[in-house]
Structure formats: structure tokens, C-alpha cells
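Suppose a colleague, Dr. K., hands you the sequence of a protein chain of 119 amino acids and asks what its three-dimensional shape might be. Before reaching for any lab equipment, you can write down a predicted structure in C-alpha cell form. Begin with the sequence itself:
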Amino acid sequence: QVQLVESGGGLVQAGGSLRLSCVASGIIFGINTGGWYRQPPGKQRELVATITGGGSTNYADSVKGRFTISIDNVKKTVYLQMNSLKPEDTAVYYCNARVAGLRGLDDYWGQGTQVTVSS
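The predicted structure, expressed as C-alpha cells, is then:
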């Protein structure tokens, strides 16, 4: 069974950095596309960044120039490097990946990791 497990969240002061990791476990052949989404308190889930296996990226305007998404298909991991963090980045961050497995391509979500940025 394929699972996505996120790590790297926590409490950081404004201006600080965090790196989130999302590891795909199970019998998989690779990550086709990866993405990070976030859900701020009392708000809907929103796109943060996406990346294809070929390395094409897309970012929300609010994080451009501060966040970097990357993918390592040897480690089957999607990363989100977050720099110059702001209090408005506080949210639960979720990993999403389209994974090539025994059943072909399937979409999976991680359980979420909390990021809290203090002012």
C-alpha cells in the first residue's frame, strides 16, 4: 500500500526557514508529479507549489521567491524549502503526489504537518 509521510514542520520565528519532506513508501516506480498544499486556520486548502517529474514548477503568488519545491525520485521524496517565513504562512501543510505503482498512476495525500510562524 502506498503512503505519503510528511515531516519537517514546526514552530519558527518570522524570517526563519523550514524544509518539509514527503516520502512515498510502498511498491512504487516513481513520482510522476508532486505538490504541496496548505490549509490556514479557518480557511480552505490552497495550492502552494507543484512540480512535474521533468522539473517544471508552479508556485502560488504568495510564496514565489521564498519557497522552492523539488523532487528526488531516487529517494521517492518531494521537498518544500521555505525561506523568509511570514506569520501568514502558518497552516497545516499537505503533500500530494501522483505515483506510478502496481495499479498504474494514482493520487495520494499525506496526513499533514503543522507549520507555525510567530511574529
